[in-house]
Amino acid sequence: MQKIVYYVASSLDGFIAGPEDDISAFALQGAGVEQYQTDLLKFRTVIMGRRTYEFGFQYGLQPGQPAYPHMEHYIFSDTLEIENLAETVHLETRSIDRVKAIRDKAETDIYLCGGGVFAGWLLENGLIDQLKLKLNPVVLGGGIPLFGDSKASVKWNLQEQKVFSDGLQILTYNRIK
């Protein structure tokens, strides 16, 4: 069975974006970002919440189009409506059974792109298998929490740590079951 991998940038204080969805304090280039981009090529399936998908619109993503051309997209939302979806973009209502079905048929591990609320919901339902944090050496003081408002208590085991010269780290954790 494939794993669901939450691969996400985070501040030291656990935010995936600052106030007003600001990501400007995060590393946007360098060896760590190149590593992340290379790692994304291993995935063929991406899942995300509505806000994460819509976040891409401000960077030129057109509604209904894939954010990652080489991946099959599943956007989970109970409210999002888009006409003219690309062949590889699917709108899904939030359903544990649907997430499990996508995982069961995936050919590779699944990239959980975000966001915090969606990741928190998956965490509470035991569906995040691996956490890959692009840990940025910055404190944001507020914004979007890594797992939204989730109160789930989950233990993780550090599998790998890559440290880059700009202070960025990529930390890979597996959920302890």
Structure description:
This protein has 177 residues and is an alpha/beta fold. Helices cover 20% and strands 29% of the residues. The protein contains 4 helices and 10 strands, in the order E-E-H-E-H-E-E-H-E-H-E-E-E-E. The chain has helices at 31-40, 50-55, 96-105, 116-124, and strands spanning 4-10, 15-17, 45-49, 72-76, 89-92, 110-114, 130-135, 144-145, 156-163, 169-175. The protein has an 8-stranded mixed sheet, with helices on both faces. A two-stranded antiparallel ribbon has the order 2-8. A hairpin with a 5-residue loop joins strand 9 (156-163) and strand 10 (169-175). The longest helix has 10 residues, at 31-40. The protein is globular. The two termini are 15 Å apart.
Number of helices: 4
Mean pLDDT: 96
The amount of beta strand, in percent, is 25-35%
Over the alpha carbons, how many angstroms does the gyration radius reach? 15 Å
The largest β sheet comes out as: 8 strands, mixed
